Amino acid sequence: MQPSAPISDLKQVTCPNCGASLSYAPGTTGMTCEHCRSAFEIKVEQSALADAHLENDLETALKKGWQAAGEKEQTTVVKCPACGAESTMEKNLFASECPFCASPLSVTPDVRAIAHPQGVLPFQLVRETATAEYEKWLRKLWFAPNDLKKRASADRFNGLYLPFWTFDAATQTDYRGERGEHYTETRTRVVDGKTVTERVVKTRWFPASGRVARFFNDLLVTASRALPENYLARLEPWDLGNLVPYDPRYLSGFKAEISQLDIASGFELAKQNMDAVIAGDIRRDIGGDEQRIHQRNTHYSRTTYKYILLPVWLSVYRYGDKLYRFVVNARTGEVHGERPYSPWKIALAVIAALILLAVLITVFGSGQ
């Protein structure tokens, strides 16, 4: 079906033909009507595309308070009493399920003003593609409980936009340390009455100091507290070059988590990530066979930020008393999942391995 005339009203998420809800269609630049299946193009001015990639001065945001300075909009937010995640919710929906921990939500939503993101990466993969990746992953699991496929039903997939900060920074780091250079010595000692000659590796240490510099571009820090950091790190890389200006129509039909991390805390986490990279730069600059870093002092300049939303498909299920999640990068299809193990299958496999080992020992033993 060919899209009709573009919808230019950013707040228009109802079908002008029948009044039903419109949902963003992943992989397109349009919306579809859930009732009459009409299609509508989301009109985006070319002059506005650069706004999604605009770098904002971090020092100004820290002084003025980003939440207070950012452009705001009214939205309906519900906080999960179990995991604490805050996500957007339809105004007329007062009972649902938390997309992050599958706990029932029956609390009264809170209508509040929140600063909206600067840019968004729209969904690229449809639910069916994410489901196919999920089922492929399930089929490859060894030692999984027999009823796992039933418990981990793919119909629990939720489309979610997760909040992220990106930070840019130019760094200069002065350091003091030591460079270790290996050398060998030959020594003789007596072992069980016999003279043994051996070569021993030792290290000479020399003082080292210097300066290293690096520019960090679009360093991602999750502003989500509902999913562990390692979940989201495994979904990288993201095609941030395809960011578009924030438009609530891209969120129509999906849920979005509200930022749980303020910009100052986000930059502190970014600096921790930078420090790990800078330490590697220092070690390479010191050279030698080993390195010791005694002191380092990093200066940050040209610091900027963006606040953006990135899309994932998330499936949550419980097995026993533990929560398991499966996450799909809704742009690239990269996946990360957790799974339970069957202790009975593992025990049987161990027993089978022991039996096989005993048979092999018997066979080879009798042959000798």
Care to describe what's here?
It is a single chain. By secondary structure, the chain is of the alpha+beta class. It folds into two domains: 1-43, no CATH class; 44-172 and 211-345, no CATH class. It contains eight helices and 18 strands. The longest helix has 25 residues, at 343-367. 27% of the residues are buried.
Write the layout of secondary structure elements.
Layout: E1 4-7, E2 22-24, E3 30-33, E4 39-42, H1 46-49, E5 56-57, H2 58-64, H3 66-69, E6 72-79, E7 86-88, E8 96-97, E9 104-105, E10 110-115, E11 119-120, H4 127-139, H5 148-151, E12 158-191, E13 194-222, H6 229-233, E14 244-245, E15 255-256, H7 263-286, E16 290-319, E17 322-329, E18 335-337, H8 343-367
Parallel strand pairs: 1-4, 11-16, 12-15
Antiparallel strand pairs: 2-3, 3-4, 5-16, 6-7, 6-10, 8-9, 11-14, 12-13, 12-16, 16-17, 17-18
Q: TL;DR?
A:
This protein is an alpha+beta fold and 368 residues long.
Cα separation of the termini: 77 Å
Overall number of structural domains: 2
- Rg value: 28 Å
Shape: flat
Mean model confidence by pLDDT: 81
Beta strand count = 18
Which sheet architecture does the biggest sheet show? 9 strands, mixed
Structural class: alpha+beta
Helix content: 10-25%
Key terms for this structure?
18 strands; 2 domains; alpha+beta; 40% strand; nine-stranded mixed sheet
